[in-house]
Every structure is written in C-alpha cells, then in structure tokens.
Amino acid sequence: MISAAGTSSSSSPLHFIGYFMDHRHEDLGWLWSHTWLSVLPVVIGLAIALPLGWLARRHRFVYPPLISITGLLYTIPSIALFVMIPPILGLSSLDPIQVPIALTVYSVALLVRVVADGLASVPEETLQAASAIGYKDLGRFFKVELPIAVPVITAGVRVALVANVSIVAVAGTIGMSNLGQLFTTGFQLSTPTPYYPPIVLGIVLCVLLALVLDGLVLLLNRILVPWRRVAR
Amino acid sequence: MIITRVFNWLTDGDNWKDSHLNTGILTQLEAHIRFTGIALAVAILIALPLGMLIGHTGRGTWLVSAANAVRALPTVGVLVLLTVIIAPHFHGRTDTGYLIPTEIVLVLLAVPPILANTYAGIDNVSPAVRDAAAGMGMTGPQVLFQVELPCSLPLIFSGLRSATLQVIATATIASYVPLGGLGRFIYDGLAQQDYPQMIGGGVLVAALALTTDLIFATIQRYAVSRGITGRFPRGRPAVASEVQSAVLTGPEVSHA
C-alpha cells in the first residue's frame, strides 16, 4: 500500500488526486496529525500569552524586556529549535513532543506582543467609562478590554496558524509523522526520474489546511465581534 | 549528559576545520552565509524598488497581496518540488542543480516581507509631510527618495530583518535536498544518529540567526534618522512612535 508504483504509476503532477485515493488511509492520518500540531500550540500559546500580555499592559516596565525576550525566541530558526528543545528539557533526542513544544514557544513569542498591542489599542475613555459604571480589575479585563482587543488578537492568531502549517511540514524532514512525510516520500521516489504526485499532494493539502484554518478564525472573529457588522 | 557532549562537539577544533572525510564548520558557515547573501541581494533588488513604486504611486497594491499569499505555501514542499524538477538537468560534480531551486525558494520567501513593509512604510507616510515636501518645490522622485524613503526606513528594516531570518532558517532546510550549509550537521547527525552533531548544528544555526539580526539592528540604529525613532542622546526619554510599534513581525503589516 505504501509502495510507490502501487496501482497508480503515472508520475504526472496532476495525478495527485489518484495518489491520494490510493494512499487515503495514510494521507488522512498525516493530515489529522498536521492539523492538531498546527492548532494546539496556538491554543496553548494564547492561554500563556493572555496573562503575559495583560501583565505587560498593566505594568509598563514589563513590556520592553518581555518583547525583547519573545523577539529573541522568534529569531531562532524552527529546525534549530526542534533539535535544541530535547536536550534543554531532558527529553530523548527525537521525542515527538519536541515539535508541539517548539511551536508553542513560537506562538507565545508572537502572541504576547499581539495581545499587549491589542490591549493597548483600547481607548482610554472606554476604560474610564467602564470603571465609571462599576467594572473592577478582572471584570473590566474580560468584559471590556479583551472583547475590544479581539480583532487585533485574531489577526495575530491567523499569522501564527498559517506559519505553523508551514513549520510543521519542516518537522517532517526530521522524521516526524505529518504531511511533511509526503515531501520525504516524493523526494525518495524521485530518483532517477521525478515522481510528482506525493509532492504536489503535500503542497495542495498544506495550502488547503492553511486556508481552512484561516477561514475558521475569520468566522470566529465575526462571531466574537458582532458590533463590527452593525456599525457597517 | 547530552549537553556536555554537544559542548564538546562544538569546542572540538577538528570539527571546525576541513578534513579529507568531513567538511568543517567554517566551510559550511561560509556556504550558509553565501546562499543567504545571494538570495537577499536578489530579493532586495526586486522588492525594494517595486515596493517604493507601489507605495509612491498607490497603484498595483494587488501585487503586495499576491506576494503575501505566497506565505501560505509550505516551504519544504516547494523546495522539494523545484529540486525534483530542476536537479536532473544538471550533471557533474557541481551542486548547481541543488543551488538553483534553493535560491528560487529563498528569494520567493524573502520578497513578500520586504515588499509588504516597503509598501506599508511609504504608504504610511503622513499626507501632510508629503504635501509639505511638494509645497517646498520637490519633484516626485525627490519626495520619494528624500522624504518618503527615510521616513519608512524603520518598517523597511523590519521587513528586511524578518526576510533575513526566514532565509537563514530555510537555507538550513536546503541541506535536506541536499546542499551544503550549517543544516548539513543537523541532517547528517540525524542520519548517523550522532545527536551531539545534530544538536550542535542547531546551536550554530540559532547563533548565526541571532548574530545576523543583531548586526541588522545595529545598522538600523545608525541608518534611521533620530527624528523618526525619537532616540536622542539626552533630555526626554524616547517617545515610542507608532511606526516603531508596528515594527518586527507586526501582523497588521503582513496582512496589508
């Protein structure tokens, strides 16, 4: 079933649909692991970035060092972060958990800044009005500041998700099981003559996944900020 | 301890020099910098004039959106695809067949951030400033080069820095197709189950990325006018301008 020639021997790039049909079970498994590897780190990252962003907004002196540290983390190339995480955390050198951890680090690094800037975009008058009608610290944060910052935060989440889909495929080159495996398979089958279907299928599925996830966040954004539609 | 073994691998002088069996760290570092430099030079030559033109004239903004859509492509996939298409046409002992697809992918990655940020930087220049320049009798090109360009330098630099980091990261993956560069140690270490070498390679790539970004930050510090950054030697603390807060990987920029 995994064998290259299998039932379909055409190497035409357009034959990727046939290739998908022949290797459906395996491909869907990779698509599924690719999906949760792209989404879960952003969810965890957001859960970590929200309190940090709130802290940076609340105490101005926290902002510059926090932004410098997260900027530094975001500077490290993904493949380098993948291989450096196990020794730092004392895991075995090729532990599958290293990929979601690395992606969570990236998501936090990106989203802390986004959350802090989003909260900073809330007008001062709005905050004063909220205080005046009786909102206290946490209530004001969850019921006033956070909802107003949602459009900025979802813009950041979209960037993080689309970036993750591409980075997860990189993890495929060091043997992690996701859509990146299609590129490895295609590359190995391409000697001596090019065999395009798995490579094209991998690109198509990655782009589709990125588009679908992006669309879902856009939809979520519309649900979370209904007042935007009314204003228009 | 794996960390001490990584440290030993990195500090072993033999690993830095070329031998008849292995290519040393210095040679691979030189190759990595060469791939990155070529790609960045080409990307700047394409994206900077184009971004300035689009920002100045306000025409052709669809090109910026089109370039941004490229970011949804999985880099590894495009790299493997182009390698499979191009490499068989080159024979012999050179690595041209692997170098050309890699450089295409690297340029493809570096153009969108530079283009989007150059465009956004010039587009963000306040109309009042532009009018003042025109009112002083400046011609179109003078406004562009003497007013709009200096004003948008912080954003252009942030685009350049994010492009550089992506190129360094992707040049590492190019070792997978297979090409030289620091990624060689990661993929060779993986294949030989020589984990100190693999992790050491990762440390080297991270160090290269951090050092390069630091160099660009230093250049930016001296190239951007103090009137824009608000960084003055003495007196009031610097005002963090709106332009500065949009710098780096600002999502509002990348979705421009």
Q: What is the strand content of chain A?
A: under 5%
Assign the CATH architecture of chain A.
Orthogonal Bundle
The pLDDT mean of chain A sits at 87
| CATH superfamily annotation of chain B | MetI-like
Radius of gyration of chain B: 21 Å
State the CATH superfamily name of chain A.
MetI-like
Q: Give the domain tally of chain A.
A: 1
Written account of the structure:
- The complex is a heterodimer of chains A (232) and B (256).
- Chain A is mainly α and 232 residues long.
- Chain A has one domain (34-226): MetI-like fold.
- Helices cover 77% and strands 0% of the residues of chain A.
- Chain A is built from ten helices and no strands.
- Chain A is elongated.
- The model of chain A is unreliable at 1-8 (pLDDT under 50).
- By secondary structure, chain B is mostly helical.
- Helix content of chain B is 73%, strand content 0%.
- Chain B has helices at 2-11, 13-16, 25-57, 62-69, 75-86, 96-123, 127-135, 140-173, 183-191, 195-223, 226-229, 242-245, 251-254.
- In chain B, helix 7 packs across helix 8.
- The model of chain B is unreliable at 238-256 (pLDDT under 50).
- Classes of the chains: A mainly alpha (232), B mainly alpha (256).
- At the A-B interface, helix 3, helix 4, helix 5, helix 7 and helix 8 of A face helix 1, helix 5, helix 8, helix 9 and helix 10 of B.
